[in-house]
Specification:
The protein is of the alpha+beta class.
Amino acid sequence: MMKFIFGIFIVIGLAIAGWLYNLYDEIKHDVDTVVNYAPKQSSQFFDKDGNLIANTFKEENREYVKYDDIPARIIEGLVAIEDTQFFEHFGINPDAISRAIIKDIKAGGFVEGASTLTQQLIKMLVLTREKKLLRKVKEALLAIRLETILTKEEILERYLNHVYFGHGYYGIKTAAKGYFNKDLYELSLKEMAILVGLPRAPSFYDPTRNLKISLARANQVITRLDTLGWINKEQYESSMKETPEIFNQTLTKNKAPYAIDYAISQLITDIPDIQYGGYKIYLTIDQDAQEIARQSLKASYDEAIKRDLAYRGSNSKDDSYVKELNGAMITMESGTGRILAMIGGVDYNQSVFNRAFQSKRQAGSAIKPFLYQIALNEGYNPASQLFDISRTYNYTVGGVQKKWQPKNYGGKFEGIVSLRDSLTFSRNLSTLNLVTDVGVSLTSEELKRYGFKDIVDNLSITLGSMSVNLVEFSEAYSVISNNGTQVKPYIIEQIVNRNGDTVTFEPQTKEVNTPEQAYLMTSILSDVVKRGTGKNAQVEGLELAGKTGTTNNNVDAWFCGYSPSIQTIIWFGNDNNAPMRRSETGGKIAAPVFSSFYKKYLELHPEIPRTFTMPDKVYTSNINGTTEYFTDTSPLPEVDSFVLPTNPNEEVLEF
């Protein structure tokens, strides 16, 4: 009989052994997920000085940390409270399992676990959390296998980086920064104890919600360390009394949201996991410049809202202007194209739509410097005389004859004006006549060379009918601000992946004009700021050049300008393309933003160049008591007398 029973046990034992072997053979490769651990990691964005300005992530906010960078006291605290024999066992703890089985039998169910840290890691990464016997057997088998592949240190590194610490924080490094605003090496013993006590029940022990409970759990960790003799009495007593400062934050730290969104848009096609792949992205953004740009744009917006409210009356309930009016701004280094500030709207919390690159608006009068630059390159000079007279243009649409009678702002015309004054005061009629004389086809082709798109081959280009976004406009204007060399605006300086591989971006430049011809335009645009339509852009102690722009019916308002080293494009308009009030011109709403920004930027960077440098091939002469510039390409005009046409208002041109 005994032999029979013994035989039965042998058969059962062999059956169990066979089952375990087959089960192990079936699941043994499941540990590959742990061995080849590649968690989602937060990507970090830095400004040009290395300051962290944003964390981005998908589902799991995690900043990875190597084992060697984890303080030993954190390891001790974790092992003390979770798995004291971690460095002695082989993946499972038989003593703990025996104790747990006895308690479970007495209770008639699963009431106590016996999982080692290795088993916990297996459970997090490979298996479900269900308390079923099969899952526990798999967990034990995989834990044993894992410990034959990874070292104890590698297991702990994966555990501390993967585990959830509550409050949206994954990994010990992220939790330290989130709860205490510190790096790991800066933590006190009590702070470490709070952290290692969290994984058991992260929501319950979350110190931002249940500080007393969290501190009690931390005291258990400290007491356990004391019991094991791993800390001395002085450390024990001081830690038990400590109540650390707790921070309640999301860690996104997005201090330049519009700039970050633009950077992501530039990278996401080639790097789909750019937001959660653990990248470090170094931007060209100047964090301080970004903030003063935001402040300057918002201040002018607020003033425009006040003007509208005063116009409508304080009792008006029509707030459509407030809802639709918005603005955008880009500042970059003229010589490199590095974007120092990008603001895509007056309030990111109200609208994430980035008007700096996602929206195309009509250029209006802001296109005029390019029209005049083309004329200068064709032999005109700033002192050349232009007809500022009205013309009637006949054209046909769908077989119907129509007339176009453009006017200057304000409705007046001067008869004859210099090219310099025509641009300084943004006269439409003299500009139309200039483009007519230079040639519409030639002008259209040259505008394309400067980078403008959607160019039509008729006189509507004279009034800025083409649509541009601020990035495109910035690139085009760099031809003037950068002495004839066009630079491509860029916002990403360097990308470092999680393996330390680095990609660096360099300025992209293209010679489009000569320095001397570009300087002629700078001299005129300086007058725009000193005495023309851009007077509101002035800054004491800093030479500036720029051009206002206002489209028909005040739909769009621009100021495009630069100092000797920094260029800025500003736009305002209604998101629904409805006209702004007639008083909201480029000089009224956009130019003050430019002035405000450069005043504050000069305070931050008093070392920037203050004056424009005249190239060697630019010459000066006196014309009618006024100093004028000329070049070999744009010689001074001969003394001549223009005779105005008889009845200039009635001159008719076909186009």
